[in-house]
Amino acid sequence: MLFNTLSLSALVLVPLIAGAAALMIRPDRLRRGLLISAAVLHFLLTITASGASPVLGGWLALDSLGHLFLGIVSLLFLVAIVYGVGYLAREKQTKEPGRVDAGSGPLLVNSRESWLTGCLLFYLSAMTLVCVSNHLGLLWVAIEATTLASAPMIFFHRRPQSLEATWKYLLICSIGIALALFGNFLLAVSTSIITSGESPLLLDQLLLQAVHFHPQWLKAAFVFLLVGYGTKMGLAPLHTWLPDAHSEAPSFVSALLSGALLNCAFLGILRAQQILNASGLAAFGQELLMGFGLLSMGLAAIFILQQPDFKRMLAYSSVEHMGILALGVGLGGTAVFGAMFHAVNHSLTKGMLFLVAGNILSVMRTKSTAEVRGLSHLMPVSAALWMAGFLAITGSPPFGTFLSEFIILKAAIEQSHYALAVIYLLILSVIFVAMASIVVRMVQGVPLRAREPAAHGESWLMIASPLVLCVLILILGVYMPDIFEDLLRDAATVVGGSA
Amino acid sequence: MQDLLFVLLILTGFVFLGSGRMQFGIRTVALQGILLGLIPLLGNLQDLWARLTALAVLSLAIKGMVLPYFLTRAMHKSKALHEDNPFVGFTASMVVGIICLGGSFWIASRLPFIDSSQPKMAVAVSLFIVLVGFFVIISRRKALSQVLGYLVMENGVYIFGVAFAVDVPWLVELGVLLDVFVAVFVMGIVIFHISKSFDHIDTDQLSSLTG
C-alpha cells in the first residue's frame, strides 16, 4: 500500500518542512495556524501508523516500543501546542514581553516567535526520528538533533538566567552525547567478529547476531551508551542540567522537555538493553539500570524537600520518575510492563503540571513557593488542577500513576527484592510529604499581597490543555482500552519483559 | 605514515593544553581537524575510495576551515582573546596531559583485542584526545575554551571510529558532522548573547541557578 510505505517518511518530513516554512512566514496567525495543523496531522499519522512498512532499506521502522513512545510525543506535542499558541498570543499582547511566565527580573526582548515556532517543529521532527529509527547511528544523530533544536527554545526569554540554563544544557548534553557516540563505536567493535559487511548497526541485524558478539566490548559499549543517553534522560548524578533548563524555559516548552525529550533519551538506553538481552548479558544492564534508578529517586527526594522554586520542584520530580522508569526496566519481568505504562502516565501528568505552573507563573509572577499563597481564591480552576496534578504525580489512586507504580512495586516483591521494595516505598512517601507541604500551602491560605485575580480571568486556552491531560490520566487509572494494553504489552516484550 | 599522524595528534593535544591564547587554541583544533581528515586517506583502502575521499574532504573543510572561522568571529565579538585565569594553570595542565597519555597507553595495552591487526596506538591516542578535551572543559573558565574542549573531545571519539575502520554508513557520518557543526554554531550564538548580557563569558560566574 502506498500509504503504508509513505507514512514513516511523512511522520518525519511533515514537521521538518512545516518548521522550515514557519521560519519564513511573517503573519503571526498564519504561522500559528501552520503549527497547529502540523501537530494535528502528525498526531493523525501517528495513530494510523501501526504496521507501517520500513523505509530507507530498513533504517526507519516502527516497532511497538517505538510506536508507544511516538504516541506519547505526538499527543503531548499537540496538547502543549494548543496551550503554547494561546501563550504566545498573550505574550504578544502584553506590553511587558517575557512577563507572562518568566517571573520577575529585568525586562528583555524575547527571541523572534518565528524562531521558536520553527524550533518547535524541528524538535518534533527530531523526536519522531528517534522513535522510528532502526539504526543506532541514526538514533544517535536524532537524539543530538533534539538537543540542538530545543536549546534555542530554552533561551526564548533571553534573560541572563535562561542563557545560563541554555549553556549548561548544551554543554552537558553534548558531552553526554559524545560519550554515547563512543558507545556506538565500541558496539561496532564488539560486532567485528562477524563480518557481515553492510551497516553493522542496524538494530534488527544486531539482535539476530547478538549472541556472537564479544562480551567485554559489548559491556563497555552499554556503559557508555547508558552514561551518554542517561545524561540526556536526567539520571542522577548526570542530571545537573535538567532543573535549570526545565525551570527557565517557557512552561509549555518545559512540558515538552520533561514529557517527551527525556523519554526519547530513555528509548536510546532501551535499544542498548535490547541488544544486551539478545546477547544473554541482560543481567549486567539490569543491575546498572536499577542502581541508577534508585540513585535518581533518592537524590530527587532530597532536592524536592524544602524546594523554594515550584518549577524546579517539578523538574526534580522528573528526575525521580526517570529513576522509576530505569528501575522498572532493571527489575525485568512484569515491572517492564509497569515501566512502559509509567512512561505514559508520567508524560501526561508532568505535561499537565508544567502547563498549570505556567498559569500560576503568569498571575503570581514568581516561581518562589514561599510567595505563592491562596491560589484557590485567585485562580480556582488552576488551583484545582494543580492539586489534582500533585496527587497524580505522587502516585495516589485513582490516577494511572498509582497503578503503574504499584505494578513495579509488586514485581519487586515477587522477585523477592524486599530491601529494594522498602527503599522504593520510603522514597515515594518522602516525596509525597515533601510535595504535599509545598503544594497545599500554595493552594490554601490568603494571598500574601493584594493581587488582581488573573487579568483577563482564566481563559479557556490556559485551562483546556491541562484539563484534557488530567482527564486522560484519570481514565487510565480506572479503565485501560484493549488496544492500548496490547501496545504496552508488546512494547514490554520488546525490552525483555513479560506481561 | 599513519603513525606519524598519530604522533602529530598527540602533539596537538599538548599544545592545546599548554596555551592560553584563544586564537592559538582555535588554530590547534583546526589543525587537529585536518589531521583527522587525513587518517582515512592514508590508511590501506582499496574499495569505496571515492566515497571516503568525499567525506574526508568535507570533514576537513568543516573542522579545518568553517568552524575555526566561525569560532574566531565569536572570539572577536565576545572580546575573549585570552584564557586569563584557568582553574588549573597551563604548566599543571601539561603535567595532567602527561598522566593522561600514560594512562591511555596503559588502558589500550590491557584491552582485549579481537585480532592483532587492530591498531592499539589509535585506541591510546583516541582516549588521550578525549581526556584532554574533557579536562579542558572542566578546567577553563571561558565559554569559548569549553567549546574548543568539546570539539577536541568529539575529535577523539572520531579517531576511534576511523582507526577501527568502523564501517559507518555515509548517511550517519554526514549526520554526525552536521550535528557537530550545528552544535558549535548554536554554542557560538549563546556565547554571543552571554557576552552581551554579562560583559564576559566566564562560565564560573553563571551560577545563579542552584539547588
Question: How would you describe this structure to a colleague?
Answer:
- The complex is a heterodimer of chains A (499) and B (211).
- The mean pLDDT of chain A is 88.
- Chain A contains 19 helices and no strands.
- Chain A has one domain (2-494).
- The two termini of chain A are 32 Å apart.
- Chain A is globular and about 70 Å long.
- Chain A has helices spanning 2-24, 28-47, 64-93, 113-132, 136-154, 160-190, 203-209, 215-233, 242-248, 251-279, 282-304, 310-331, 334-364, 375-378, 380-393, 400-414, 418-443, 460-478, 482-494.
- Chain A has 499 residues and is mainly alpha-helical.
- Chain B is mostly helical.
- Chain B has one domain.
- Helix content of chain B is 75%, strand content 0%.
- Chain B is built from seven helices and no strands.
- The longest helix of chain B is centred in the N-terminal third of the chain and has 30 residues, at 49-78.
- Chain B is globular, with a radius of gyration of 18 Å.
- Classes of the chains: A mainly alpha (499), B mainly alpha (211).
- Chains A and B meet through helix 5, helix 6 and helix 9 of A and helix 5, helix 6 and helix 7 of B.
